[in-house]
Amino acid sequence: MTDPRTDIAGGRRIAALWTGLLLAPLAFLTSLELAYLLVDGACLRRNVLPIHLVQAACLLLALAGGVTAWRSRHADGARARFMAGLGAVLSALFVLAIGAQAIPAFFLGPCR
Question: What's the predicted TM-score (pTM) here?
Answer without folding.
Answer: 0.86
